[in-house]
Automatic annotation (TrEMBL):
<feature type="signal peptide">
    <location>
        <begin position="1"/>
        <end position="31"/>
    </location>
</feature>
<dbReference type="InterPro" id="IPR004314">
    <property type="entry name" value="Neprosin"/>
</dbReference>
<feature type="domain" description="Neprosin PEP catalytic">
    <location>
        <begin position="169"/>
        <end position="423"/>
    </location>
</feature>
<keyword id="KW-0732">Signal</keyword>
<dbReference type="InterPro" id="IPR053168">
    <property type="entry name" value="Glutamic_endopeptidase"/>
</dbReference>
<dbReference type="InterPro" id="IPR025521">
    <property type="entry name" value="Neprosin_propep"/>
</dbReference>
<protein>
    <submittedName>
        <fullName>Uncharacterized protein LOC111301793</fullName>
    </submittedName>
</protein>
<dbReference type="Pfam" id="PF14365">
    <property type="entry name" value="Neprosin_AP"/>
</dbReference>
<dbReference type="Pfam" id="PF03080">
    <property type="entry name" value="Neprosin"/>
</dbReference>
C-alpha cells in the first residue's frame, strides 16, 4: 500500500519533470529562433543602409556586384554633418612635385609598366557619369563578421607602434608589421608606389595588407588614422583576391570609421575605381611586376584629406570634421605591411606578407614600396628626412630601406611567416 502510494507519487513527479523539461525545450527553441530572426532582421536593415539603389549594376568576373550609385546618394550623406554638404568635385590644390619623380629610368624599371593596372570589374562595364561604383555588400559578407556592428571595422589595437611603451602588448594582439616610418614633424600627406601581390592566407580570420598610415595624435583612445593600400582578407570579402582599400578612424578603431565606404565618412567623386574591388593583374615571382601609386594629402584651403590612385584617378576626400588631430596635420606617417597571426601558444602562422619573400631577395621576388614621399606645410612633395623601420619579429617578416636616383626612398619588406627561424 505504502509502496503503491510511493510509486504513484514518483510517477506524478516524473510526469511533472518531463513536462517542465519539455516546457524548457520549447522556450529555449523559441528564444533561439527569435534571436535568429532578430539577427536576420538586423542584417537586412544594415544591408539596406549600405546598399543604395543602383542606376546600373556590373557583375565582375570574381563574383562581385558593382553598383553604380548616383553620386549624391552615396553612404557619406547618411552622416548628419553632411546633410547640407556641397560635394567638391576637385581639390583646390595638388601637391607640387607630383609627376617628376614618376619618370622612371630603365635600369630597375618594372617590365610591365606600360600595362596599366586596373580593377577586375572593368572587364564587364563602366559606371555612367554622375555615379560612383560601390561593391555591393552581400548577406554572407555581414554574417562572416563577429557582429553586425563590427562589420567593416578593424579589430582594436591594429596599429604598428614603433616605440610602444609595452612591447608585450604588440605581440599579444597578434598583429605583425614590417614598416618604415617618419615622425617628429607636421605632415600634410604621403605618397608611395606599392608593389602588388597576392599573399597566401593560412586562416580565413587572418589577413595580409600593404598600406600607408597617416596618423594624428598619440597611440591612445583618440588616435586618428587615414589608411590606404591593398589587402587580402577572406573575412571581409569572402575570397583571397587582392583588393584596393581605405580605412579611417578618429578614435583608435573603436566607434568611428570603417573600411572603404562601409560607413558614412569618405566622399567619393570618381566613377572608375571601386573601393574594395579586386586589383588585376598582380605580380608574379621572378616575372611581371605591377605596382599602384597612392597619394593622400590635405587640401590647404578646405582642410579635407584627398586621395589619388595612380596618376589619373582622384578618388575623393575625407572631410576635415571627421577628425580631431588630423583636422590640423599628421604627426607620423607609416608605410608597410601588416598580417594577423591567429596561431595560439607562440606558434606562427604561414600567412605571407608582401610577396611572401624576405627583403634580401630584391626586385621581382620581394615586395617593395618606392618613391616614398611626404607632403610638407608648403604643399610640396618631399623625400622623408629620416626613415625609421620597425618589425616585431624580423625572422618572420622583415624590412630593408634604401635610396637611389630612380626609386628615391624605397624599401623591400615582407616574408613567409612560419619558417625554421620563425616556428
Ligand atoms: C583561400 O586560400 C586558402 C589557402 O591559402 C584556401 O584554403 C581557401 O579555400 C581559399 N579561399 C577561397 C574562398 O578561395
Ligand atoms: C615578440 O615575440 C617574439 C617571440 O616571442 C620575440 O622574439 C620578439 O622580440 C617580440 N617582439 C617585441 C617587439 O616584443
Amino acid at each position: 500500500m505504502g509502496n503503491a502510494h510511493f510509486s504513484r507519487e514518483r510517477i506524478r513527479t516524473g510526469v511533472l519533470l518531463v513536462f517542465l523539461w519539455m516546457l524548457g525545450l520549447i522556450s529555449l527553441s523559441c528564444a533561439a529562433s527569435l534571436s535568429a530572426s532578430r539577427q536576420k532582421l538586423q542584417v537586412q536593415k544594415h544591408l539596406n543602409r549600405l546598399n543604395k539603389p543602383a542606376v546600373k549594376t556590373i557583375k565582375s568576373p570574381d563574383g562581385d556586384l558593382i553598383d553604380c550609385i548616383h553620386i549624391s546618394h552615396q553612404p557619406a550623406f547618411d552622416h548628419p554633418f553632411l546633410k547640407d554638404h556641397k560635394i567638391q568635385m576637385r581639390p583646390n590644390y595638388h601637391p607640387e612635385g607630383l609627376f617628376d619623380e614618376d619618370k622612371i629610368s630603365d635600369t630597375e624599371k618594372p617590365k610591365q609598366r606600360s600595362n596599366p593596372i586596373t580593377q577586375l570589374w572593368h572587364m564587364n562595364g563602366k559606371c555612367p557619369q554622375g555615379t560612383i561604383p560601390i561593391r555591393r555588400t552581400k548577406e554572407e559578407d555581414v554574417l562572416r563578421a563577429s557582429s553586425v556592428k563590427r562589420y567593416g571595422k578593424k579589430k582594436l589595437r591594429a596599429i604598428p607602434q614603433p616605440r610602444s611603451v609595452d612591447p608585450d602588448l604588440i605581440n599579444q594582439s597578434g598583429h605583425q608589421h614590417a614598416i618604415a616610418y617618419v615622425e617628429g614633424d607636421k605632415y600634410y600627406g604621403a605618397k608611395a608606389t606599392i608593389n602588388v601581390w597576392e599573399p597566401k592566407i593560412q586562416q580565413p580570420n587572418e589577413f595580409s595588407l600593404s598600406q600607408l598610415w597617416i596618423l594624428g595624435g598619440s597611440f591612445g583612445e583618440d588616435l586618428n588614422s587615414i589608411e590606404a593600400g591593398w589587402q587580402v582578407s577572406p573575412d571581409l570579402y569572402g575570397d583571397n583576391n587582392t583588393r584596393l582599400f581605405t580605412y579611417w578612424t578618429s578614435d583608435a578603431y573603436q566607434a568611428t570609421g570603417c573600411y572603404n565606404l562601409l560607413c558614412s565618412g569618405f566622399i567619393q567623386i570618381n566613377s572608375e575605381i571601386a573601393m574594395g574591388a579586386s586589383i588585376s593583374p598582380v605580380s608574379a615571382y621572378r616575372n611581371s611586376q605591377y605596382d599602384i601609386s597612392i597619394l593622400v594629402w590635405k587640401d590647404p584651403k578646405e582642410g579635407h584629406w584627398w586621395m589619388q590612385f595612380g596618376n589619373d584617378y582622384v578618388l575623393g576626400y575625407w572631410p576635415s570634421f571627421l577628425f580631431s588631430y588630423l583636422a590640423d596635420s599628421a604627426s607620423m606617417i607609416e608605410w608597410g605591411g601588416e598580417v594577423v597571426n591567429s596561431e595560439p601558444d607562440g606558434h606562427h602562422t604561414s600567412t605571407q606578407m608582401g610577396s611572401g619573400h624576405f627583403p634580401e631577395e630584391g626586385f621581382g621576388k620581394s615586395s617593395y614600396f618606392r618613391n616614398i614621399r611626404v607632403v610638407d606645410d608648403s604643399n610640396n612633395l618631399k623625400a622623408p628626412k629620416e626613415l625609421g623601420t620597425f618589425t616585431e619579429q624580423s625572422n618572420c617578416y622583415d624590412v630593408q630601406t634604401g635610396s637611389n636616383g630612380d626609386w628615391g626612398h624605397y624599401f623591400y619588406y615582407g616574408g613567409p611567416g612560419k619558417n625554421p627561424n620563425c616556428p
